[in-house]
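[step 3/7] inverse_fold.run input=structure_tokens len=509
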């Protein structure tokens, strides 16, 4: 669970006493060093202490280090070292990350993330050999963002693996990777990635500042970080994209966005992101443009159906019978003849049942969840009609709205579409079509006021950006689509071309 910053409940003297252990020097005595180390970390069961000789001791936490590197490189090297001193050991170890520290707390923090501490009797410095090795699952297909045509590899929980996947897609020397550590207790490492010359510098600086200003105790997932650094945490609409697809993440970086990869999370963050982009899928780029355009228009139509179809039914039966076509009046009256509830109660009850079935199917094991969803929907729907609780026509409408909500490619935005139906139904039950228009205006005003990393949330609709319409509601042929960013790729390419021409002219002269 996420916990915020600690409250100051201690006085100044107690705070000073708590800060003193952070600067404790390394005890030269081997016995004193081990005693102080065990006291500080409370003698955990996975603490391993090995005596290489009478003067050299190594300590590490089991399961956090690479045992092969320890046995094949560190231990044989330590046995061969004659003039034992921290500097000699550091120069003798053939490992990429080796360092010297003079503070006990700094050495402990390194050990907690997978380092071996090498202590030499009579010296007040520690050799830090970073050979961390974390257990992680292998690469697999993304579960929440499936597609038929395209890559079938998704991120996992190892940040090193995720960054390597990104670099396999983007072999560009301008791909920048900046490392941060967040959380006083968890010390979660994360990387901010962007392509220099394509991403806007103001967006990169904003991400840096918001991450640096975080003062929290723990960070366990990228979804928590996304809510902490977005523009408006109160809004239910997501302003940053969470994706588990490396191809979609790299496509965002190439479009000028800033990416964040969090260690321990299989979801990466892309920002800024507009409202329209949440309904676009990476598979749209892999399909022919007429098919991709049709599917996109179908998704946007599904949004309106999912949010407003049931409220229109409630408003029409409650206040506006005149808008119902004459041939439908008889079937509607016969279907609702034995229903004892008003349309608003009938609609809310069915919507709640659909949400209960959906939530139960998502939380149960896969095979059981599918069975519960199918059987529960059929049994409850049939029983509700036979018992006179609801009408056949409303069940068809509710089922259509539920199917429409599933067309949203992004899970977070799909949840928003599901929740929005309930207040709109309530407004339609009290004020009819006027309530629906009030809900629509409120939603549009809210969206127009939102921003994502300072960028307009409703772009390219508002402010109008006609060049971006080629890949918004429709997807034009790829040769007609130009990537747009604050620092345009076209300008960047022309500048590099001019520089190369200038160099050639100098060589010719």
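[step 3/7] decode complete -> sequence:
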């Amino acid at each position: 669970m996420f916990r915020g910053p600690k409250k100051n409940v201690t006085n100044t003297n107690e705070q000073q006493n708590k800060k003193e252990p952070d600067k404790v020097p390394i005890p030269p005595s081997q016995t004193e060093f081990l005693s102080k180390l065990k006291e500080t970390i409370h003698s955990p069961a996975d603490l391993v202490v090995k005596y290489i000789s009478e003067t050299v001791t190594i300590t590490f936490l089991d399961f956090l280090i690479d045992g092969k590197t320890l046995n094949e490189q560190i231990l044989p090297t330590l046995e061969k070292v004659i003039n034992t001193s921290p500097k000699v050991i550091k120069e003798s170890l053939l490992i990429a990350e080796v360092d010297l520290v003079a503070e006990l707390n700094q050495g402990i923090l390194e050990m907690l993330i997978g380092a071996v501490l090498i202590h030499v009797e009579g010296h007040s410095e520690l050799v830090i050999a970073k050979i961390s090795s974390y257990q992680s699952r292998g690469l697999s297909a993304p579960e929440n963002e499936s597609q038929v045509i395209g890559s079938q590899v998704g991120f996992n929980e190892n940040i090193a693996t995720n960054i390597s996947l990104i670099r396999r897609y983007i072999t560009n020397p301008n791909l920048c990777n900046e490392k941060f550590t967040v959380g006083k207790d968890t010390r979660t490492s994360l990387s901010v990635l962007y392509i220099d010359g394509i991403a806007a510098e103001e967006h990169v600086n904003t991400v840096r500042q918001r991450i640096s200003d975080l003062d929290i105790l723990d960070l366990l997932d990228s979804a928590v970080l996304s809510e902490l650094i977005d523009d408006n945490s109160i809004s239910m609409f997501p302003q940053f994209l969470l994706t588990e697809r490396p191809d979609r993440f790299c496509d965002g970086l190439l479009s000028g966005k800033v990416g964040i990869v969090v260690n321990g999370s299989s979801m990466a963050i892309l920002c800024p992101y507009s409202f329209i982009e949440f309904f676009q899928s990476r598979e749209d780029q892999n399909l022919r443009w007429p098919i991709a355009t049709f599917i996109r228009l179908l998704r946007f139509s599904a949004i309106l159906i999912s949010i407003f179809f049931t409220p229109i039914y409630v408003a029409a039966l409650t206040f506006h019978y005149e808008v119902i076509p004459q041939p439908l009046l008889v079937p509607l009256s016969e279907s609702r003849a034995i229903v004892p509830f008003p349309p608003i109660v009938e609609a809310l009850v069915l919507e709640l049942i659909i949400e209960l079935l959906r939530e139960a199917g998502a939380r149960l094991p896969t095979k059981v969840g599918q069975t519960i969803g199918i059987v529960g929907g059929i049994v409850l729907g049939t029983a509700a009609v036979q018992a006179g609780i609801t009408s056949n026509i409303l069940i068809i409408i509710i089922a259509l709205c539920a199917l429409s909500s599933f067309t949203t490619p992004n899970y977070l935005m799909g949840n928003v579409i599901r929740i929005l139906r309930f207040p709109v139904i309530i407004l339609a039950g009290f004020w009819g079509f006027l309530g629906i228009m009030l809900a629509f205006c409120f939603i549009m005003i809210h969206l127009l006021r939102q921003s994502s990393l300072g960028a307009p949330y409703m772009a390219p609709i508002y402010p109008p950006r006609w060049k971006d319409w080629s890949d918004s509601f429709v997807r034009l042929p790829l040769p007609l689509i130009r990537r747009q960013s604050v620092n345009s790729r076209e300008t960047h390419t022309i500048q590099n071309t001019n520089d190369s021409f200038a160099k050639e002219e100098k060589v010719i002269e």
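[step 4/7] annotate
Residues 289-318 form the longest helix (30 residues).
The longest strand covers residues 175-182.
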